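Standup notes
- DV: blocked on the single-chain target, sequence here:
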Amino acid sequence: MGVLLWLLMVLTSCCEGQFILQVGFYRNTCPEAESIVHGVVRDAVASDPNMAAALLRLHFHDCFVEGCDASILIDVSSQPEKLAFAHQGLRGFEVIQRAKAQLEASCPALVSCADILALAARDAIALTNGPTYQVPTGRRDGFVSNFSLADEMPQVTDSIQILKAKFLNKGLTHKDLVLLSAAHTIGTTACFFMTKRLYNFFPGGVGSDPAINPNFLPRLKARCPQNGDVNARLAIDEGSGTEFDKHILKNIREGFAVLESDARLNDDIFTKSVMDSYFFFFLVKVRGQKPKQQKELH
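- DV (later): unblocked, structure below
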């Protein structure tokens, strides 16, 4: 669980603003806050298992733009952030709204939407057999929302150089890039995001991504046939799409990544070394072998 716990630490601290956060921030002012959010998320995931991944993605997309300020929820301007191309397919807004409504009934004007998003992501992970962890709270909601602010969101077609640059601009490292990509261990994607990788990968609109394992390519094409339903969905983590685990890293290393951006982690010596180090850690832990000295990359 070591890698997963580190991932959770990145998720809870990713792109935070200058707020003073603390575990149990609402302990005295709204003691039922976390249990209320948990109940709403539990019911939502029970009704729709894919909602867990949707809530996790919603939290990340909110945090990556302007910090974890719930700006992804603001819908008052003519061009709100949620309408950005990079945010297409986001859902789970109604779950956050239900939690907010219950919290307002219990503790009016106390619990921020930004904290609700963070707590919902935590509970979604736990409900998919992931580890539980404490979330520092005390975030404040932002007031600015414009879709142009989402221009630097990572895209599934980005090269590894662009992905690393986007993360660096947010104060995140190549290690954070690998760990946050590992959050794709749960959830689905639409065939819309697979078309280029499967059928138009090379200039001129031909061919498939050679990074796809040859044994996996026919299965991907069967699920997303050319000129087929672009809204059809498939698991992002082949073979383990409903459980929060380390399986996604194994898939990426072996050419079974579904998303092109995940596969690109193999294209860079630094991101690849991060995956290799964690995979090596798992092998040592399972087999009880003593780790050999590995040269660290800087």
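- Follow-up: The beta strands are 188-190, 233-235.
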